[in-house]
Amino acid sequence: MSLSVLEHGVSETPSVNSEFEAADSYHRGCKRREGAKTLDASLASPRYLAISSQSPRAFLLLHTMQSLNGGDLEPTVRIRELKKDRVNFVLENVDLAFANSLRRVMMADIPTVAIDMVVIEINTTVLPDEFIAHRLGMIPLVSSNAEEAIRYNRDCTCPVSCKYCSIDLVLHVACHEGKTMDITSNHLDVIAPNMFDTPDDQGEVGDYGEELTKRVENFGHPVGKGDPSMPPVLICKIRKGQELKLKCIAKKGIAKEHAKWSPCSAVSFEYDPHNKLRHTTYWFENSSKTEWPVSELNGKEEEPERDDEAFDFNAKPNRFYFEVETDGSLGPQEVVMKNSKQNWQT
Ligand SMILES: [Zn+2]
């Protein structure tokens, strides 16, 4: 089996497209839309093998999708819009259960890094320690490739935390001026791990440093730090004479443990925009029409039901319009593609 993962028409955000690399010349059978991005997966000829080997995650995902679908039709993913923190795509030729499982995996099963322990040294702000610790936990941290770049603390042999399973951050802000001051995520500084530490009892023999080499430069930093176009997350407001000094330990986790580890701020999908399957026939509050409103964009993708069209009792939804928005800890392409490796491999 072979497949291709192809994209065309991409112009605005070239930096986030590494997963979708492909050549236009290989593309076939996919309608070009102006300004839209398209990811088409066809499972056809051997000449696509070279491309599939460049994108093993995509291969695995599509392979699984095809086997779940019974192999009747080729599952396709068509990206309609791809931005730095969100992606809109159409998934076709899979069943509703698969589409929903994809949504749930993206929300709760993709590992990221988040602050998990806080040691407060000085807190003379108006907020109690627990309040501040909770707010710190919810700050999104850059978690690219967290799967390989950091260990789960529970899998590590260290007693509490170490550079292989944790990221250390510090914050120390004091207000000396006569006006209100904001303490934000930009005040959090990552303590760089000491690469020359002797391993001692850290990890198993042969494992040393493997994770550290797979980290991006700003791994564990608050999302948007140093980016003037992105407003920081407000932690607390202080006035003259107040001070906050603390140390945080960020760890890897998934959102099944705590929502702070979710890379997504919103994941949704729609199907059957014209309600051809008549979901509201037997249950509605006021009107069966208004309670399944036609969405503007997705309504154009499918033909509305004609008045003389007979109802198909055996029809099943097979086209799903996804909208995935991330909090910045991971890019949308990583969230979508991680599904395959993380959960559909076994
Ligand atoms: Zn450790």
UniProtKB/TrEMBL annotation:
CDD domains linked: RNAP_II_RPB3
UniProt-listed Pfam families: RNA_pol_A_bac (PF01000), RNA_pol_L (PF01193)
Boundaries of every DNA-directed RNA polymerase RpoA/D/Rpb3-type domain copy: 86-340
Keywords noted in UniProt: DNA-directed RNA polymerase, Transcription
An example Gene Ontology CC term for this record: RNA polymerase II, core complex
InterPro entries: DNA-dir_RNA_pol_30-40kDasu_CS, DNA-dir_RNA_pol_insert, DNA-dir_RNA_pol_RpoA/D/Rpb3, RBP11-like, RNAP_Rpo3/Rpb3/RPAC1, RNApol_insert_sf, Rpo3/RPB3_RNA_Pol_subunit
SMART domains, per database record: RPOLD (SM00662)
Entries under SUPFAM superfamilies matching the protein: Insert subdomain of RNA polymerase alpha subunit (SSF56553), RBP11-like subunits of RNA polymerase (SSF55257)
Keyword Transcription appears in the UniProt entry: yes
Superkingdom field: Eukaryota
A GO MF term: DNA-directed RNA polymerase activity
GO biological process, any: transcription by RNA polymerase II
Family named by the database record: Belongs to the archaeal Rpo3/eukaryotic RPB3 RNA polymerase subunit family.
PANTHER family in the record: DNA-DIRECTED RNA POLYMERASE, DNA-DIRECTED RNA POLYMERASE II SUBUNIT RPB3
Protein's name according to its UniProt entry: DNA-directed RNA polymerase RpoA/D/Rpb3-type domain-containing protein
Lineage: Eukaryota, Fungi, Dikarya, Basidiomycota, Agaricomycotina
